[in-house]
Predict the structure.
Amino acid sequence: MNFEGGMDQASFLNRVRAALAKSDTANARLTTPTATADLEARARQIQADAFHRWSELFSRFSVELEAVGGVVHPAGAADLASVIGRIARERGLTRVVTWSEQALDVPGLLARLEAEGLAVEDTWRLGDSVGGTGRVPYAGIAWTEVGLTGSDFAIADSGTLVLQSGVGKDRLVSCLPAIHIAILRPGQLLGSLEDVGILLERESHQAPPGGLPRVVDFITGPSRTADIEMSLTRGIHGPKEVHVIAVS
């Protein structure tokens, strides 16, 4: 039997074995103490730069996100609820589903949103409402009009949000409602996709068994779909609006 390029079976199998040996060597290098220390050092430098370069990165992020139809709202921490309330009221919306308050890491935010006149459901309570299974019913998210999430990371180069699924962080909150609002803080906004990859790799090394997110979503602006005539429509397969509230 002839294989690739007319090689005989023995030559082909030897080539496969050599490729596998190279792969094993590369994988071993990734797990050496030196490689792990280098990864940690690079991750720490990226995080330090993210704080120091906030203004520069935020300016670039805003330009890129607005270029793809997103909206950026600079705000103080105390103004979060009022900004979210204003976005909803301007569109005649009143129903909001959120990540859990713990995942949002803004104590008291849900109560302040209710004081703004919004009907608020967080995914933690929705999960408890179906017998404590922790599984959030699709309908419980789909009936809402606004989805509120935090951000794990964001990429200045492309105006992209990076969201990891996890406890109290159902990914459908950013996918099903018509409006997606994300909270972004200094330290979460990075320069490039490569920077995000390094921090995600560091997290994968540090995570306990079963502790990795099931899904990592990269969201660049509203959902966009073009038909065969290239007529662009927003919101067919996801939110038609994406708002980022940048808290500084």
